[in-house]
Amino acid sequence: MRIVLIGAPGAGKGTQAKVISNKFNIPHISTGDILRNEINKGSELGKKAVKFVESGKLVPDEIIIEIIKNMIRKSRSENGFLMDGFPRNLKQAKMFSSTLDHLGIKLDKVINIVVDKDEIISRLGKRRTCNVCKSVFSINNNNENFIKCPECGGDLIKRKDDDVEVIKHRLEVYESETRPLINFYTDKGLLVNIDGSGEEKEITERILKFL
Ligand code: AP5
């Protein structure tokens, strides 16, 4: 199974990707997670990426394309992959298509998770990530004092790009750079729009109907 998940920041791509990649036993390839990991390690790649990621800008295509080529090579012998956060603009999408064509690989579906802007801003304001196991949580009125990860006891931290001004910039970048992918994949007959509002499980069910 070869799946691409697209959608605005905070639409729930990462949340759904974890469930779906487990269900189909395929690697979850999140360019955002890969970049944050490199930044945390202080690698050369991380040093190049940090200013883009923390300010909500897209990391230059050359860096992303190199990451993805390595990941595709690695996952070639596996059952497929689930891309989360890639491609992010038309240049990346075209490069991805030609790499897959070259390898004789076809995508099965591109899932576009659709959530309205107010809900996105609310979700990202509440998001916390465990600094140890990287699990993602949402704090709300009932649990806003919970600062330790219920899975492993690590500290829960707010992503730097979940600052409200950076969120607004990420949404602008999404509109100008990423939204055009909807037409690109519609024209290829691959796109499925999924209503991303409601409970996480309901959204998973909606996605699974198409896979
Ligand atoms: P990336 O990490 O990909 O961020 P993003 O696309 O902005 O998406 P998010 O991770 O913010 O949100 P999500 O849709 O995964 O939502 P989540 O499931 O966490 O990229 C970060 C940065 O890296 C980019 O800005 C860029 O700089 C760089 N980058 C990455 N890829 C790149 C590329 N290809 N090219 C160039 N640069 C690149 O959910 C959000 C919150 O909502 C969570 O708290 C979750 O618990 C909660 N939630 C989820 N579902 C629900 C629900 N149904 N109801 C209520 N709450 C929910």
Task: Quickly list its features.
alpha/beta; Rossmann fold; binds BIS(adenosine)-5'-pentaphosphate; 3-stranded antiparallel β-sheet; 5-stranded parallel β-sheet
Ordered list of secondary-structure elements with their pairings:
Layout: E1 2-7, H1 13-24, E2 28-30, H2 31-41, H3 44-55, H4 61-75, E3 81-84, H5 90-103, E4 109-114, H6 117-126, E5 127-130, E6 136-138, E7 156-157, H7 164-178, H8 181-187, E8 191-195, H9 200-208
Parallel strand pairs: 1-3, 1-4, 2-3, 4-8
Antiparallel strand pairs: 5-6, 5-7
Helix pairs in contact: 1-9, 2-3, 4-5, 6-7
This protein binds BIS(adenosine)-5'-pentaphosphate.
Describe the structure.
The protein has helices at residues 13-24, 31-41, 44-55, 61-75, 90-103, 117-126, 164-178, 181-187, 200-208, and strands at 2-7, 28-30, 81-84, 109-114, 127-130, 136-138, 156-157, 191-195. By secondary structure, the protein is an alpha/beta fold. The protein has a single domain (2-206), classed as P-loop containing nucleotide triphosphate hydrolases (Rossmann fold, 3-Layer(aba) Sandwich), CATH 3.40.50.300. The strands form 2 sheets. The chain has a 5-stranded parallel beta sheet, sandwiched between helices. A 3-stranded antiparallel beta sheet has the order 6-5-7. Helix 1 (13-24) packs across helix 9 (200-208) and helix 6 packs across helix 7 (164-178). The chain is globular. The N and C termini lie close together (8 Å). The structure holds BIS(adenosine)-5'-pentaphosphate (AP5). BIS(adenosine)-5'-pentaphosphate is lined by residues 7, 9-15, 31-32, 35, 52-53, 56-59, 64, 85-86, 88, 92, 123, 126-127, 136-138, 161, 170, 200, 203. Residues 7, 9-15, 31-32, 35, 52-53, 56-59, 64, 85-86, 88, 92, 123, 126-127, 136-138, 161, 170, 200, 203 line the site of BIS(adenosine)-5'-pentaphosphate.
